[in-house]
Specification:
Layout: E1 4-6, E2 9-11, H1 32-48, H2 53-59, H3 67-72, H4 85-96, H5 100-120, H6 123-134, E3 140-143, H7 153-156, E4 160-163, E5 167-178, E6 185-192, E7 198-204, E8 210-214, E9 226-237, H8 252-283, E10 285-286, E11 289-290, H9 295-323, H10 329-353, H11 365-377, H12 382-394
Parallel strand pairs: 3-6, 4-6
Antiparallel strand pairs: 1-2, 4-5, 5-9, 6-7, 8-9, 10-11
Helix pairs in contact: 1-4, 4-5, 4-8, 5-6, 5-8, 8-9, 8-10, 8-11, 9-10, 10-11, 10-12
Length: about 400
């Protein structure tokens, strides 16, 4: 049907519904090779992970058997590949589009483990770990947050590293460490008792004095195994210190990129929420017609896809700044805070749209809804990231 204009308004325009939520044709911004690879990754994730991972989420278990295929698709080596920043971000989004926890594993693995070993590690450390990490044959965990220090951990870190004649003694506790129950090693940040500098160390999880306990009963991100880890006078050699991480500032670039990754995660999870909501209301009938025909439902769907596309616009610009070497922490903070705020809104709309079925994990909306709460909080809380943005635009810090 053609458009009819009346009083400046367009009426009776019937367009075919978009088969995919990518109504802005985002994928066309990639090279042909990256488009093909992204579609291959999407197909695998949608066919082999999206529904299958729900029971792991319910049981708070990690799906180890899913990792080899992700490695074959290149998801274990994004941080050291020659792919574009946009492709890297869209891959994170596709993983979040099926499960936020699994995206957390892939993001942490690339941005905070693989990337740091590659950039800050010694030749021996790279030789020992990089190939295994690239294929997910090995995994690491990023041990920074502590029981009493989250947002202020850089200045308040209590875990210590004491120099000895043979190497180092690591002592302290870490909390909320993703993958900490099954990682082969931890990238531990500790304060040098001589210099007060915060330094990085690779600590094998099977060393005497290392113990990890799973944090249970979480409301979201139930697949990723967060842990409390104790380092009780763990003896290391000098070769276990990351030579490029003699000061905390060495991690700034990777920590910034990690926060950007969460922005992509928020975008992908919004797409997941939209997928779930739209599929449900198209198939569910009430009062003799599809839920999708009701105005209030259509309003929510329009808000959700608009949120997602707005998030993408922000992330696309951040990826451009990364490619040009001009990205700053304010951009990362804005990406994370804005994306997580929009995700929280869209996830709530999806959960509400499913009615009673919206509180059952097998319908996915409840799973996305609770996962969104964690995205709002981790990798720097929404509030802290908002204040980082405010500091950049006012020149004044509201926190030390």
């Amino acid at each position: 049907m053609t458009a009819v204009e009346s009083n400046g308004l367009i009426h009776n325009v019937h367009e075919a519904p978009f088969p995919d939520a990518d109504i802005l044709d985002v994928i066309s911004l990639l090279s042909p090779d990256e488009q093909e690879q992204l579609l291959k990754i999407r197909q695998h994730l949608q066919d082999n992970i999206r529904k299958q991972v729900i029971e792991y989420w319910n049981r708070e278990e990690f799906p180890f058997e899913m990792l080899p295929a992700l490695g074959d698709l290149g998801l274990g080596e994004l941080a050291v590949s020659d792919c574009s920043w946009l492709f890297r971000g869209l891959v994170y989004a596709e993983v979040a589009r099926v499960d936020v926890s699994l995206c957390a594993l892939v993001g942490i693995h690339n941005e905070l483990i693989l990337g740091m070993v590659d950039q800050l590690g010694s030749d021996a450390q790279r030789a020992q770990w990089l190939d295994k990490l690239r294929s997910f044959e090995a995994t690491g965990c990023f041990a920074m947050t502590e029981p009493d220090h989250g947002s202020d951990v850089a200045g308040g870190m209590e875990t210590t590293a004491t120099k000895t004649a043979n190497g180092w003694i690591i002592h302290g506790e870490k909390r909320w460490i993703g993958g900490g129950t099954f990682a082969d090693f931890a990238l531990v940040w500790a304060r040098d008792t001589d210099t007060e500098n915060v330094k990085g160390f690779l600590v094998r999880m099977d060393l005497p004095g290392v113990s990890a306990e799973k944090i249970s009963d979480k409301i979201g991100l139930r697949v990723i195994q967060n842990a409390d880890i104790v380092f009780d006078d763990v003896e290391l050699s000098d070769a276990d210190a990351l030579p490029g991480a003699a000061e905390f500032s060495a991690a700034n670039e990777m920590l910034r990129n990690s926060r950007i990754w969460v922005g992509w995660q928020a975008y992908g999870a919004q797409m997941h929420a939209f997928d779930v909501a739209r599929d449900y209301v198209l198939g569910r009938k009430q009062f003799g017609q599809p839920l999708a025909k009701f105005q209030l439902v259509q309003q929510d769907l329009a808000e959700m896809i608009s949120n997602a596309m707005a998030s993408f616009g922000l992330m696309h610009q951040v990826a451009r700044l990364q490619a040009e070497g001009r990205v700053q922490m304010v951009h990362a903070a804005m990406a994370k805070s804005t994306g997580s705020r929009m995700l929280r809104d869209s996830a709530a709309r999806a959960r509400n749209m499913l009615g009673g079925n919206g509180i059952v994990s097998t319908y996915e909306a409840a799973k996305i809804f609770t996962d969104a709460e964690i995205v709002h909080t981790y990798e720097g809380t929404y509030e802290i990231n908002s204040l980082i943005v405010a500091r950049a635009i006012t020149g004044m810090s509201s926190f030390v």
